[in-house]
Specification:
single chain, 169 residues, alpha+beta, 4 strands
Length: 169
Amino acid sequence: MPFYENVFIARQDVTTAQVEALTEQFAGIVAAQGGNVTKREYWGLKSLSYRVRKNRKGHYVLLNIDAPAAAVIEMERNMRLHEDVLRQLTVRVEALEEGPSAMMQSKGGRDRDGRDRDGPRRDRDDRPPRDRDDRPRDRDRGDRDDRFRPARAARPEASAAPSTEGDVA
């Protein structure tokens, strides 16, 4: 049988228990058609990129499915009819992923601010941080300060006499 990955988004005001019940309902539809749901992952309540049916957030769920095409078509039809499902996407894949999906894996041992969990902060391209002592200081430049300071531009002084332009005599 072919393999599929399905991700659906449920409304934000639905509870987690209701989302689990939805997942069970859709898995039951696949099982009734002769298929099998091999993995179910609840990704949590996440922000949407744009508003969908007046919702700014949604509950994301991943299903890995080993089923005939007719079972997947029936499951998608039920998802379209269900009012709690905002969006759904099903993709046929060559093989099902073992273990946690990319959304559930850690971010390579890094925290949100780019620090290693057991080491110092790293720059974006993983170079060690530079020491700030390798730059010349102002007092080390000596008398060269005057050569690099720009000269002030002379301002024209306002004349004390009033202008005669536009005056009628």
